[in-house]
Predict the structure.
Amino acid sequence: MHMESKSFIQKGYVQLLLTFILVGVLVALSAYAQLTFKEARGTYTGEATISISGEGEVMAVPDIGQFSFAVRAEGADAVDAQENSAEAINAILAYLEGAGVEEKDVKTQNYNLRPKYRYEERPCLTGGYCPPGERVIDGYEVSQNVTVKVRNLDEAGTLISNVGERGATNISSLQFTIDDIDVLQAQAREEAIADAKEKAQKLADELGMQLDRIVGFYEGGNNGYAQMERSVMAMDTAEGLGGKMTAPSIPVGENEILSNVTITYQLK
C-alpha cells in the first residue's frame, strides 16, 4: 500500500513538471511570434520604385496664321438664297486666290440653309379675343463659315481687311500657329524626359541606390503649345466708325511648346 502511494505521488510530480515545461514553451513561442511580427511590420519586401516628373519647353516663331469669316445671304426661295450666297462667297474666294492663298488653305467649316418665318396676323374676334397668327415661311437664309490659313504673315492684315470689304461678317481674330508642330513637340518631349531622368538620378544617389529600369511612363495633358492671337479688326480712325478697315501691322512673337512627362523607375 505504501509503495502504490509513493508511485502515485511521483507520477503527479512528473505530470506537473511536464505541464510547467509545456506552458514555458508556449510562452516562449508567443513572445517570439510577437517580436517577429513587430519587426515584419516595418519591413517592405516589394520592389522599390520612384516616380519623377519632368518638363520640356521649346520656343518657336509661328509660321502660319489662321482666321475665319462668315457669309450670309437671303432669297425668296431656297434657290435664290443659295445663288446669292454663292455669288458672295465666290467673290471672296476669287480675291483670296488672286492674293496668293492656295485652294487647300481655304476650308468651309459649315454650310446651313434654313427657312425664315413670319406670323400672319388674324382679325380679332368679337369680345376682344385675338387668335394667334399662323407661322408661314417668309424666304430662306444661307450661312457659310470659312477658315483661311495664311502662310505669308505679312499679308494677314490686308487679307482680313479686304475680305471684310467684300461682305464677309463675323471675322475672327487672327491666330498664329505652327504648321508642323510634331517635330517641335518631339523635341520638347526629349527635354522633358532628360529633365525627369536627371532628377531621378539625383534622388537615387541621395537614397544610396541605383536606377534599374523604367517600369512606367506617362505624358500629361498639358502637351501642346500656346497659340498667340491678335485682333486685326482695327478701323481707320480718319474715317470714323463704320469706315474702311485698315491693314494693321501684326507682331508675331513666339509660341511656347510644352511637354510634361512622369517616369517611374525601379531601384536596386
